[in-house]
Amino acid sequence: MSRPTPRLVALDVDGTLLESGTAVPPVTAQAVAAVRKAGHHVALATARPLIGALPVAHSLGLDGAWIVGSSGAITAYVSRSEPGGYRVHAARTFDVDPVAHLARTRMPRVRMAVELAGWGWRVNQEFDPGHLEGQQHVVVHLDELWATPATRMVLCAPGIGSLIEPLRQLGVTPSAAGLGWLDVTPRGPSMAGALETLRGHLDVPPERTVAIGDSWSDAGMLRWAAYPVVMGHAPTAVKALAKRVTSPVGRHGAAEALDALLVADASRFTTVHV
Fold first, then answer.
1. Tens of pLDDT along 167-183?
2. Is the pLDDT of residue 266 over 50?
């Protein structure tokens, strides 16, 4: 019997594959491995930067799989044969200079961090441990921060939310990610858009796309997928986007949904209200 047409399965990380950290529970890792063994494509789809998503990929033992990171700004192919274990497949960047100039003019004490994909961050001041994933390089000269375009930048200062509209006028996308914290990404990229590009690259039919997520930040990719699956602990508004609602992350709902892919065609998924 021939294998079914491969699916592209997009997996949110935080709140879906794991509750915290980078170590995916064995039952979920086994389910991901089984889906890949069956011939399906797996992509981690996360707001985490590449350096924060790579340890999760390693925890899953992924080789020959994909990461769509920084909310769609970067797509990388995970492979042991590549230097560092990955290859950047696509990246959308923005000019850091006007963003940094605006932030420093309005808030002279602002802390700034510019992502270095797969390594860490250039920073003007060191951030507290655990606040940024990866290593930090404190620049000697501020112009090092904006020496090259970036996929993501972090601005941190009390009242930084007041810069959201001025930053939008610069043509970037600022997103509040906590009190006094803004993530800045290029305008245009989205998780759904990056996944659609990847789908085309892999030649997966649109009807063979699956996404599993748990929060409103996953709404774009859930709408993109032909078969959206939402975790049981998700808000009601997010569950409304699902064709299937699985168990909460604490009960390994992602593994439950992935196991279902192996025993039934995705078109047989039914909406479950919990």
1. 999 999 998 877 899 99
2. no
CB atoms within 10 A of CB 133: 17
- How many whole angstroms separate alpha carbon 73 and alpha carbon 80? 23
* pTM for the whole structure: 0.83
CB 184 within 8 A of CB 155: yes
Nearest to 12 by CA among 157, 155, 195: 195
3-state secondary structure of 155: strand
pLDDT tens-place string over residues 233-262: 999 999 999 999 999 999 999 999 999 888
* Helix-helix angle 26-37:253-263, to 10 degrees: 20
Annotate 244-272 with DSSP letters as a single string: EE---GGGTHHHHHHHHHHHS-GGG----
Q: What is the pLDDT of residue 268?
A: 47
Q: How far is CA 186 from CA 43, 133, 155, 165, 227, in A?
A: 21, 20, 14, 14, 28
**Residues pairing with 121 in the sheet:** 115, 136
If you count them, how many residues does the chain have?
274
Confidence band for 264, pLDDT divided at 50, 70 and 90 = low
* CATH (one of 3.40.640.10, 3.20.20.80, 3.40.50.2300, 3.40.50.1000) for 8-91+189-268: 3.40.50.1000
Query: Cα–Cα distances in Å, from 233 out to 37, 77, 170, 247?
Result: 28, 30, 37, 7
With cut-offs at 50, 70 and 90, classify the pLDDT of residue 269: very low
Q: Which CATH class is domain 96-186?
A: alpha beta
Spatial separation of the C-alpha atoms in residues 165 and 182, rounded to whole Å? 12
Q: Cβ distance 40 to 7 under 8 Å? A: yes
